[in-house]
Amino acid sequence: MFRTAAMMQPYLFPYLGYFQLIAASDHFVLGDDLQYVKASWINRNRILVSGQAALITFPLRKGAQSERINQRWLCDGFEQEANKILRTLTLAYGRAPYQAETLPLITEILLNPERNLARFIEHSIRRLCDHLQIETPISLGSEMGLPERMDKQERVVRITQRLGAERYLNPIGGLDLYCPSYFDAHGLQLRFLRMDDLTYPQFGKPFVPALSIIDVLMFNGRDATHALLGHHSLIEGRPQALTLQQA
Asked: In whole angstroms, what is the distance from residue 135 CA to residue 139 CA?
């Protein structure tokens, strides 16, 4: 077996595949020092409301476009925003079979007094991993001592090597962005995680896929969600993949 590393931007309550990636790696890195991207999944996600996907957004203080994730802050008065989100979740999942098991965890996460965005998300990811019994060690990109600006492929290669890993694992969405030959030249394997097509009952209505882990936990509970972590496959990259530009 190859010792496997993975890295992702810190996302708030990401979808199941994010946790599959963490569980499938031997060491996971939260890219807290990567640039914040507006309208991404960093500070928002989707839940189920009346049978449809609906966004929940965590408002931020105004910041410069060039700022890193760990330089952004949740908005002033975030306590009120957190309570609004909790009321939305309570109403949306009032009849969900595992609401009583899941809502206290989500409440604890949302009421965390930390206001730095990266640290707030880090706490949420660690708590969710604890809940799902994922034991993969988690480090921060800012702890790696890498230059702020460098090619993204070089960044993940350097991180993978620094962790003593021989394989880098990325979500399937990056299939056309990473070049296997670049990793081969550095003595590393490149693999992509593809989540299986999964469905589960959602109040008897047509299934809405790729929602937040909140939705998965509300309808499946901790034990069944833990079992879903292994429902994926690893595939090889495409030789013609594009080389990324500087971050």
From this structure: 13
Residues 6+ apart with CB under 8 A from 137: 26, 27, 28
Measure CA 90 to chain center.
23
* Residues 6 or more apart in contact with residue 111 via CB below 8 angstroms: 79, 82
Dist CA 219 CA 223 (whole Å): 11
Q: What is the pTM of this model?
A: 0.94
| pLDDT tens-digit map of 113-169 | 999 999 999 999 999 999 999 999 999 999 998 887 888 899 999 999 999 999 999
Cα–Cα distance measured from residue 211 to residue 234, given in angstroms and rounded to the nearest whole number: 22
- Report pLDDT digits (tens) over 113-128: 999 999 999 999 999 9
Is residue 219 within 8 Å of residue 178, measured between CB atoms? no
Read off the DSSP letter of residue 235: E
- pLDDT for 245: 33
C-alpha–C-alpha distance, residues 187 and 165, integer Å:
10
